[in-house]
């Protein structure tokens, strides 16, 4: 390139500008305006200029020839001939006029920062002292490119994926990815193997860090919605240092879609959603067929001011950590819309879930829900019928209603929830000796020789574990009902674990008796499965407790009031 005075041959075009060549707009003799560039010094002292952004002002056919009699540019030839070059000490430059008054910031200064705002620390040049004593300049994310290897960015972690492992013919390994945001833009970064061990425990979601050094490579847009042509791969010289002073950096950016709009959203669309967690389900475990690995899942039911509710499925750690007991506001960035059972949402490994986000939308929603939303009968756009794990629109019934509505008399089991008080426990035969192997709860046969035989495992064991099947009579103000409680729900009602109770039964009959006495007259929320079963030509409703938890009196009172209102409307 020549500016009419000097020529320089070591210019390189950044890959994103390749189209200029392909479209033959950039050719000999055309006139260009260089908007953004980076000067890299090679080891031998030569400089290479990477052109990051340029406009062709006049095409070659219009210009037609060289302008002036330029001579090759030589360093040290005097300042008067270096009109467009910047101080040699700095690795990155913008156009000289852009650098005035904002010298701390890299090439994209005017694009993203006002003159009063500095990157990193307010009011000063941002340098980060690394443990080795060297300093590197903090640059904006938007200026990162593969032609520069020494850089530091100061960025907030807006997404942190879980560690994933792979195994193929070339070996095995693990990786995790994060998404980083500063005021100039966003970028995705991935750590592999050793870097996973080093950085996964260190990096926390929503915190700000200085990230120094890493490979930059062209981003695979197929796998990410992050708006950057490049992505970072950590290597063994990468360092990550917490930054305490970065309140001004943006946090996770959402573009929320109202829940009511999801009904008209295409399957597999990626959306941001915010809602109050009206209710949530217990965790369940499923086995992923492809990897034969067991993962946790949990459905949560989110409602917004549109009065609609949607079921979102959380996975893995996210499912295990989630606590919906105080009806938090939940914001999800990048959930996938599924048409499984009406419309529902799946939280992906690339999604970000923020509970009670510190945002105006969240405050507005909280205020609305606490004042009126909680009394609203919302309709779910997700299909909540069916199995025991779907309990979004909790089917609250009194025991009398469950009987008079013939629940469980159909072909399929019915599920309902009620509040009931324990009035009688049948302690006879409530415990049995079961196979000690994991996941096998088959009753064992006492061989009377110190060994216990499991027919299912076809093995004899020197020990057994106690399991429980407890018949409980529960009552509300109109009715009572015998229900069967298995292990976990029996342990909740008796307040003791089965192993301890088994020991008591053998050694201290009176203490065992007391446990049952003490369990009487406590009230719980029961989720009950009812199904007509036939034994010896006799049909009767079998009621099984699927879940039992303490009564949330506040919630219960709210439901009572809602029922009274509903009845009042029906009665006119
Ligand atoms: Zn067994």
**Total number of β-strand segments?**
32
User: Approximately what portion of the residues adopt beta-strand conformation?
Assistant: 35-45%
How many H/I helical runs? 12
Mean pLDDT: 80
Parts with pLDDT < 50 across at least 5 consecutive residues: 78-127, 129-134, 385-393
Q: What percent of residues adopt helix (DSSP H or I)?
A: 10-25%
What molecules are bound to this protein?
zinc ion
Largest sheet: 8 strands, mixed
Protein name: Replication protein A subunit
Region (Disordered): 71-115
Main location: nucleus
GO molecular function, one term: zinc ion binding
Walk me through this protein's architecture.
GO terms for molecular function: DNA binding; zinc ion binding. Component of the heterotrimeric canonical replication protein A complex (RPA). This is Replication protein A subunit. It holds the Pfam family Rep_fac-A_C. Keywords: DNA replication, DNA-binding, Metal-binding, Nucleus, Zinc, Zinc-finger. The chain is 16% helix and 38% strand. Strand 11 and strand 12 form a beta hairpin. The protein contains 12 helices and 32 strands. It is of the alpha+beta class and 572 residues long. It starts with 5 loop residues before the first strand and ends with a helix. Helix 10 crosses helix 11. The strands form 7 sheets. Strands 9, 10, 11, 12, 13, 14, 15 and 16 form an 8-stranded mixed beta sheet that branches. Strands 24, 25, 29, 30, 31 and 32 form a 6-stranded antiparallel beta sheet that branches. The chain has a 5-stranded mixed barrel with strand order 17-19-20-22-21. Bound molecules: zinc ion.
